[in-house]
Amino acid sequence: MSGTFVGMPAFPEAAREAVHDQTLRGNLRHATHTIRAKRRTAVAEVSDWAELREAGKRIKDHTLRHLDRYLVQLEESVTAAGGTVHWAADAGEANRIVTRLVKETGESEVVKVKSMATQEIGLNEALEEEGIRAYETDLAELIVQLGKDRPSHILVPAIHRNRGEIREIFAREMSEWGRPAPEGLTDTPAELAEAARLHLREKFLRAKVGVSGANFMVAETGTLVVVESEGNGRMCLTLPETLISVVGIEKIVPTWRDLEVFLQTLPRSSTAERMNPYTSTWTGTTDEDGPRNFHLVLLDNGRTDTLADEVGRQALRCIRCSACLNVCPVYERAGGHAYGSVYPGPIGAILSPQLRGTASEIDASLPYASSLCGACYEVCPVAIDIPEVLVHLRERVVQGGQVTREGNKVVLRPAKGHAAERAAMRAARWAFTRPGALRTGQRLASRTRRFHPRTLPGPGRAWTGTRDLPPVPAEPFRDWWHRTHGGKDETK
Amino acid sequence: MSSRERVLGRVRRALADVPRDDTPYERAVARDYLGEHGERTVEQTVDLLAENLADYRAIVHRTDAGGLAGVVAGLLRERGSSSVLVPPGLDEGWLAATGVTRVADRAESTPHELDRVDSVITACAVAIAETGTLVLDGSPDQGRRRITLVPDHHICVVRVPDQVVSSVPQALERLDPARPLTWISGPSATSDIELDRVEGVHGPRTLEVVLVG
Amino acid sequence: MRVALFLTCVNDTLYPDTGRAVVKLLNRLGVEVDFPVAQTCCGQAHYNTGYRYEAEPLARHFSDVFRDYEAIVTPSGSCGAMVRELYPRMGERARAEGRGDTLATALAPVVPKTYELTEFLVDVLGVTDVGAYYPHTVTYHPTCHGLRGLGLGERPLRLLRAVKGLELVELPGAEECCGFGGTFALKNADVSAAMGADKVRNAASTGAEVLCAADNSCLMHIGGTMTRLRTGMRPVHIAQILASTEEEPAA
């Protein structure tokens, strides 16, 4: 994944900083609460939401179950429509393919539609190394690129920035990249959008190569779909002579008709709109309309490894709407950067450790970045049971077991750093299967209760640093029951 | 081994645990959702289209065939446009009442040339009432995709009720996936600043829709 | 009707008042309650932290202890959800791992007859007015596993609205998690504490004296935050409110 995230600390450490950043907390709270309420309204407008959600889930599950067949069908239909299909097993290969295709055009700059797949593979950095400049054209991506920042949200990568900060970035950085920001730029969103329009216009009009991802690919027709708002997508998809789309293999749907489900659920879940301002669909190339050359790069990069996990594979249903981020209480407080990946929030916490494996500190910590409150599952338009996958990945971290990495089955050892916890869990299991031992422990706690400290040392400090401990009662319930109800068969 | 074979091989191995299932696709996925939301008369459907277009800040006008040329001329005049892009198959009568310079939609035009045109007028392929969406499919009366993108002012004429459907599923049924499609719901917009919607970014900042019945 | 009280290990050890309240309440409603003393822990903390294999013997033990009762009642949304939602999943996982049906079969009997307390009152006993008296201003926090796992919905609120003397005030952001989340409270203490503080601020903004919930684990976290932030509010389990009467009022 993107080099900008290499060497991230584990989630709790990264989150600690964010939690105490009052500006960030305020920005995230404002943005997520705004969109939460709107999403609820947009979803309530359609009486058949549950049925749409179920259909979306089934379409994706069916596609994944027959993914090889649909990939081959897609390749045939895209090729028949005048496109060229490339296959990339990993990020490095995808970057090499795109770099070669750009170089073949003789150009040294590309305009980009917002795309998670190209962020995931670190395409901009790879192009930069080969002397090709990639201009991000989505407003939030532009803010991130100009601010030399990292994305912190799937839909709105600059969600951690408020209007004042955005104004400052534009005023300071735009001149480095092209047309400077207008004199006297204020922080009203309309003026900031206007500044982006002016800044990017010249780049769109002269662009010869566009790079995009896609929200959907239709196997039967070879059609690609990009869902967007600003029109930067349309610019990149129609003005250049060459279009290169890098798309994860899980983005396939079998039939044209399937779009009727996702074009209803995606806009309402992501921007809380009945329909987003612009959706473009294209099938190969069209004579005298749009790019003359179309290349589709099909990206694996950990997706087939994810597919091999029977619990975790449901994460591949994801349509990147970001409803789960917007509703997540942990994301709201920790911010997107703490997740150490272009995929933050609940979906990121189950996607990154599957795409990248759980070897790094950050990836091993992500499955724990959740209170398992279930709000993400409730809003997911393709019903990904995120808590279920989180717990499953926790098992992988602490218990180890068989996983697939780069197509090969390997057996993971339990992760380091959980030894004390594992011992405690085993001891608790031992006591909890022996009621007598539990009772002895409870009595001991009750008898010594006057000596319990108010704050705990060591790992216990994690609790008492911010919360008081409950007082231990004079006797546990079971002793009261024994006294008043004459306990029998106590040692069963 | 090619990457194609490598990826397909990985997919097949990943699915080794999944029981074989040859149910045809039409029966594999239950579609219990609605074909459209609510029951409406034709007239109500057109009203809903107008309402939803306006809700996303498109400017809606209604007229009949006889009044269309006058309405179009008036819109170009109010806008102060001196030039208008015209797709090759547009009904000439629509521009009968205006003297504004016509610019033809030609393959040779550069994006910079298009950027100097004030307005564009097109028909559409279908309009969706429930979502307030216009779909353009590149037919001769709609032109190349870029002509409705670069100019800042788009006038789109919808023949009502023939071109209006209620829902997204009904629209997809009418559309040909082989054509390049542009779905337009209001002027360009963004939610990228504090997740609040603002209209007007790269696409036309003014979208005027004329419903002709 | 004779039911088993599954009190949960946390309540047994730290909140015996809740257990006494459940017994008192159910007895008052004519239900005979047994407390099988061999009961320990449902295994939720193990399971949710990733130690499914350590949770399995606890689940088997639970089933051994409770399987012969007509109904199993627990004053905990999350432990109730553990049995109802996750025991079947544990059985499925064992099956998928090629370990046969024995775990699924062993756990199956307890799954359908385990009820969270408010569910048992409203759905099984069919009562919403339990004859309680509690002259205090109360705000209700729906805990996540009760709300989204078990789907308790309006049940707790219907019970609270029928309590004499009780003034119920709405909690802003009620459906947001309080930040407890079991071992999450320790592993991600900073985020957990921030969530807790926001929950407590919302609760304090209502002016209520009492924050009520159907799960003492969450109340332990919220209550610990309340005293640390000196709000003057107290956390009270819903069982204690419903058990309170004019003759024997609870604090």
UniProtKB/TrEMBL annotation, chain A:
Domain 4Fe-4S ferredoxin-type: 315-384
Gene3D superfamilies, per database record: Alpha-helical ferredoxin (1.10.1060.10), NagB/RpiA/CoA transferase-like (3.40.50.10420)
Residue stretches making up the Lactate utilization protein B C-terminal domain: 393-483
Biased composition (Basic and acidic residues): 476-492
InterPro entries: 4Fe4S_Fe-S-bd, 4Fe4S_Fe_S_CS, FTHF_cligase-like_sf, Helical_ferredxn, LUD_dom, LutB/LldF, LutB_C, NagB/RpiA_transferase-like
SUPFAM superfamilies according to UniProt: 4Fe-4S ferredoxins, NagB/RpiA/CoA transferase-like
Span of domain LUD: 73-298
Key words of the record: 4Fe-4S, Electron transport, Iron, Iron-sulfur, Metal-binding, Repeat, Transport
Entry annotated with the keyword 4Fe-4S: yes
Coiled coil: none
A Pfam family matched in the record: LutB_C
Spans annotated as Disordered: 451-492
Protein name per Swiss-Prot or TrEMBL: LutB/LldF family L-lactate oxidation iron-sulfur protein
Species, as recorded: Streptomyces fimbriatus
